[in-house]
Amino acid sequence: MTDRQLRIEVVIGSVREGRIGPRVAEWVVDRIERYSAAERDGFDHGLIDLAEMRLPADLAPSTETEAFRSRVASADAFVVVTPEYNHGYPAALKTAFDSLKYEWRGKPIGFVSYGGPAGGVRAVEQLRQVVAELHMVSVRQSVGFQRARRQLDAATIDEMVEDSMQRMLGQLAWWARATRTHGATTAYPG
Fold first, then answer.
1. Is 126 helix (H, G, I), strand (E, B) or coil?
2. Which phi-psi region, left, alpha or beta, contains residue 32 (left: φ > 0; alpha: ψ -120 to 50)?
3. pLDDT tens by residue, 70-115
4. pLDDT tens digits, residue range 1-32?
5. Which CATH number does the domain 6-183 belong to among 3.40.50.360, 2.40.280.10, 1.10.600.10, 3.30.70.100?
6. Which residues contact 137 (CB under 8 A, 6 or more apart)?
7. E strand or H helix at 160, and its extent?
8. Nearest to 24 by CA among 154, 152, 160, 158
9. How far from the centroid of its chain's Cα atoms is residue 26's Cα?
10. Residues 62, 55: Cα–Cα separation, whole Å
11. Euclidean distance between the first and final Cα of the chain, in Å?
12. Cα–Cα distance, 30 to 25 (Å, whole number)
């Protein structure tokens, strides 16, 4: 097993103008940094904004896709920040998942959602099906932000949201260590 710190990539799934995704992602990154400072084996982290990646919707090969492939391949875990649009998730996020195949396999993923009174949970339930098909490990705990903009503007985050985030990071760290350790000696059979 490598001695490098676990690498987690935070993916902003919305590309809409006026989106709140980057603010939610900033909050996620802050919580990852706090978690990593408190834990002996925390995360190194990066941020992938799909609005900046410009992945081809027709899934054609591109320099953007190759850069994305490199980032995904080098990560040990992921947190997807997603809104809920019309009881689903954004098309840009589906394009991101469909643009790659093997790079996703055997890696853990967690979700932070927002939107509507349900806090985006319907988008997450659909995404769990997609990532299962990609052979990813979806951790049980997720974070559903109700009234995300209001909570972030007031800098008063619901205690349940904070607790869910900590639990999710713990689960991601556990799975990332397990899949990295096992993957170092045994190829994924998918």
1. helix
2. alpha
3. 999 999 999 999 999 999 999 999 999 999 999 999 999 999 999 9
4. 456 789 999 999 999 999 999 999 999 999 99
5. 3.40.50.360
6. 106, 107, 108, 109, 175, 179
7. helix 159-183
8. 152
9. 13
10. 8
11. 21
12. 8
The single residue listed with the structure tokens 């941020």 is 47
Q: What share of the chain is helix, strand, coil (3-state, %, to 5)?
A: 50, 20, 35
What is the phi/psi pair of residue 141, to 5°?
-75, 135
If we measure between CA atoms, which residue out of 74, 153, 179, 169 comes closest to residue 112? 169
Domain spans in the chain, listed from the N-terminal domain onward: 6-183
Mean of the per-residue pLDDT values of the chain:
94
